Amino acid sequence: MARDADGAERRARFRPASGMETPRFSGIASFMRLPVLAPEDAPGAVEIGLIGIPFDGTTTNRPGARLGPRAVREASTGTRAINHATGIAPYALAACADLGDVPVNPVDAADTDRRIEAFYRPLAEAGIVPLSVGGDHFVSYPVLRALGAARPLGLIHIDAHSDTDDSQYGGSRLTHGTPFRRAVEVGALDPRRCVQIGLRGSLDAADERDWARGQGIRIIEMEEVCARGLPEVAAEARAVIGEAPAYLSFDIDALDPAFAPGTGTPEIGGFTTREALHLLRALRGLDLVGADVVEVAPPLDPAGVTALAGAGLAFEILCLLAERVAARRGTDGGP
Asked: Are 49 and 280 in contact (CB under 8 A)?
């Protein structure tokens, strides 16, 4: 999209309703109170599309993440226009809209896999940057196939679990524990440009992470994060990714369950929400072409703390994406 009056007018159209003009608790909830647009109408109009993927049919522990997009939409109505820490004003930098939910099949993972890829491919071809809210972590795999069709992507994966199993429960190859192994296998991810941050918890087998390490994926377990500190870990993650396009995936169980109890497979000893914010802000400038926040399971958290964390993290990630969109367009991407 050219940097011209038409582009500025388009960005002005696709921004949230102001909480100073209409109450944040009014109207139909959308991500960040953004305008809602049909995905087929997005090319040529929108630069960043926020999308829900309400599917948890491959979770192996506690279900409920199918309701994540709805809860995060509701919680996100409290976000405002400017990031107080970085000064990034995402809606001034990029035209953003809520593109609705992928029409998933709640009883068929293979069909849902096809539906998700079919939803994202035209958006990727149009250059629209997706920010998705799941759903269990399986949903990242078909999104990565769509975004990585032209070239393999790098990956920053913030999670308690590696999600690089080969199969689960009698040979099931499409589960929330296998998405990144599948993505490497089909060439959507370059494993040498993948870094996983915050992994922790007990294992099913001693060799559970050997495949990932053998492929060249850099695993930074939580104990190493604590020993080295966030700035040093973020610097290494940036070095692993380099300057080529990459994807960011944030599983809400990367947070300690004290801050995100509403998730399918909680693990003690995780990030605080403050630490997660600092980690994301340290990733500014990477060439991110998409991102997701997954595994928010509202039924497991009646207080809504987890959805609120998911909404806040999604806003931080949106700031990173908007800054990169503006930089690609050749405009000033930040303060």
From this structure: no
Secondary structure of residue 302 in the 3-state scheme: coil
Q: What is the pLDDT of residues 189-212, one digit of tens each?
A: 999 999 999 999 999 888 889 999
Nearest to 289 by CA among 327, 330, 233: 327
Q: 161, 185, 165: which is closest to 173 by C-alpha?
A: 165
72 lies in which domain range? 5-329
Q: What is the distance between the alpha carbons of residues 190 and 216, in angstroms, rounded to a whole number? A: 9
d(CA 254, CA 109): 24
Number of folded domains that form the chain? 1
Answer whether residue 127 is part of any domain.
yes
Neighbours of 300 (CB within 10 A): 19
State residue 303 phi and psi, 5-degree precision.
-75, -15
Domain-located, residue 228: yes
pLDDT at 318: 98
Which regions of 108-242 does DSSP assign to beta strands (E)? 129-134, 153-158, 189-199, 218-221
DSSP state for residue 267 in the 8-state scheme? -
Contact 37, 118 (CB under 8 A): no
In a domain, 335, yes or no: no
- How far apart CA 302 and CA 297 sit, in angstroms, is 10
Beta pairing partners, 133: 52, 293
pLDDT score of 6 = 64
**Long-range CB contacts (within 8 A, 24+) of 30-33:** 30/73, 30/98, 31/72, 31/73, 31/76, 31/98, 31/133, 31/314, 32/76, 32/77, 32/79, 32/96, 32/98, 32/314, 32/315, 32/318, 33/76, 33/77, 33/79
pLDDT at 57: 94
**For 4-13, 30-39, 224-233, 305-314, which range has the lowest pLDDT when averaged over its residues?**
4-13
Q: Across the strands, what pairs with 271?
A: 255
Instruction: Report how far apart, in Å, the C-alpha atoms of 6 and of each of 9, 45, 326 are.
Output: 5, 10, 15
CATH number of the domain bearing residue 50: 3.40.800.10
User: Which pLDDT does position 23 carry in this prediction?
Assistant: 79
Q: How far apart are CA 270 and CA 44, in angstroms?
A: 40
Is residue 191 domain-resident?
yes
- What's the pTM? 0.93
